[in-house]
Amino acid sequence: MEIVAGYAFAGPALDLGALLWDGQCLPDAQIRIPLAMLNRHGLVAGATGTGKTKTLQLIAEQLAVQGVPVFLADVKGDVSGISLPGEAGEKVAERAREVGQTWEATGFPSEFYALGGIGTGIPVRATITSFGPVLLSKVLQLNQTQEQSLGLIFHYADQKGLELVDLKDLRAVVTFLTSDEGKPELKGIGGLSTVTAGVILRALTAFEAQGMGDFFGEPEFDTSEFLRAAPDGRGLVSVLELPAVQDKPQLFSTFLMWLLADLYNDLPEVGDLEKPKLVFFFDEAHLLFNGASKAFLEAITQTVRLIRSKGVGVFFVTQTPKDVPGDVLAQLGNRVQHALRAFTPDDEKALKATVRTFPHSAYDLGETLTTLGTGEAVITVLSEKGAPTPVAVTRLRAPESLMGPVEAGALDGAVKGSLLYGRYAEAVDRESAFEKLAAREAEAVAAAAEVEAEKAAPAPAPAGQERGSVVDQVVGSGIFKSLARSLGTQLGREISRSVFGTARRRR
């Protein structure tokens, strides 16, 4: 059969399941993905409850066995079970028999993270500078003009040696630029109005009032931690726990893009490898693209296209392919499409659009996609030669780890027992833009008071002594000291930025 031959790969591959043909499951016809093609990206799609989460868990397990580190975004809080052996049962045994799987309960080496430490996990933080204006604009829901203005504010801070570590640093810079003292500086930037700066300031204040300040700061997380292997040689599974921020979808989706962009910035070009350095699963991917500016979408497309040569594969997990922009979808060579519903005209339209994204096949995909059972999918991947494989309706294997969340106490123990916990758990607030601007303001107030005191002083000193006194006063004044410090930090400080406007980390 042509389909069976299309999945008979010579090199290492991940086993997804067995072919379904004419209503029968054929355990001898295994549907697989070549390991070397996992950096060509992929899409796992399907309606709610069709098995997308179990599919990404299945793929993650087999990648870990092959020594490939995996990153999983756990939006609903039910992926943490990958760290523990699964539970045997009649349904699991039946599925294993149907697809020719030798099932063995197995847990996989895992680390658990949480954005800013909100929730259970090792805190993942980023500095405002490294996050950059493009990504931050998405979080703050700024329009394109405001996004460009925010970029100018970042440029100003870079030029003036005002480190943007956390939200209060950026708020301090914007507040300064809209003050009487800072308005001349604002005019010098060009293209940035007081009104727009005020809009940005209000957006920052509202964002911080929602408790979002914890996500930005130091110690900044080093994304190379995701590239580690366990002592037994298996790839480490990094699980980012997101249930605590489910009501902030733009925040966590944009933060995931920062993680990916940071990896892209730091990893060297390696071309095609025998196996990827990391496979990154981007759950609830539609949230990333909702309301995105043209510049943001272009940056995503470029990052996805180029990160393949860094040895990183990206799988987007969402409901339908139409949730992903066409330019991004075109980069996704591996496709696992679970069942779709066709209850409404919009559903019908999404179904037809999905069918058009697949290669020609012997199946009536319009009908097949609405009749698939839970844990079944339509699959096409890239062969070892990089060509699409024949479309195969597949009954998927059962994950060998726990299909559900880890008990809260055990999860907390795993987090605090990690070697990374001591490195990232406690936030650090060093001197940065907020402190520097506060010190500058205090010095200006002191200098003004000194001038007033001089005006009220008695008779002037002799001429020679007066000259020395004035020089001493100027050199010793707070304004002079502040200016000297500022000049010292400004020289050559402009931060080089990547395609996303994120800062390139110096290591």
How would you portray this structure in words?
This protein has 507 residues and is α/β, with parallel strands linked by helices. Helices cover 42% and strands 14% of the residues. It is built from 20 helices and twelve strands. β1 and β2 form a beta hairpin. α5 packs antiparallel against α10 and α10 crosses α12. The longest helix is centred in the C-terminal third of the chain and has 23 residues.
Largest sheet entry: 12 strands, mixed
Shape: elongated
Major sheet: arrangement of strands:
2-1-12-11-10-3-9-8-4-7-5-6
Rounded to an integer in angstroms, the radius of gyration calculated over CA atoms is 28 Å
Strand elements, count: 12
Helix content: 40-55%
In short:
The chain is 42% helix and 14% strand. It has helices at 2-6, 52-65, 90-99, 128-131, 133-140, 144-160, 167-177, 183-189, 194-209, 249-266, 286-289, 294-307, 326-329, 345-356, 365-371, 408-416, 421-424, 433-455, 463-476, 478-490; strands at residues 13-21, 24-34, 42-45, 70-74, 110-115, 122-124, 237-241, 278-282, 312-318, 334-337, 376-380, 392-396.
Topology:
Elements: H1 2-6, E1 13-21, E2 24-34, E3 42-45, H2 52-65, E4 70-74, H3 90-99, E5 110-115, E6 122-124, H4 128-131, H5 133-140, H6 144-160, H7 167-177, H8 183-189, H9 194-209, E7 237-241, H10 249-266, E8 278-282, H11 286-289, H12 294-307, E9 312-318, H13 326-329, E10 334-337, H14 345-356, H15 365-371, E11 376-380, E12 392-396, H16 408-416, H17 421-424, H18 433-455, H19 463-476, H20 478-490
Parallel strand pairs: 3-9, 3-10, 4-7, 4-8, 5-6, 5-7, 8-9
Antiparallel strand pairs: 1-2, 1-12, 10-11, 11-12
Helix pairs in contact: 5-6, 5-10, 6-9, 7-9, 7-18, 10-12
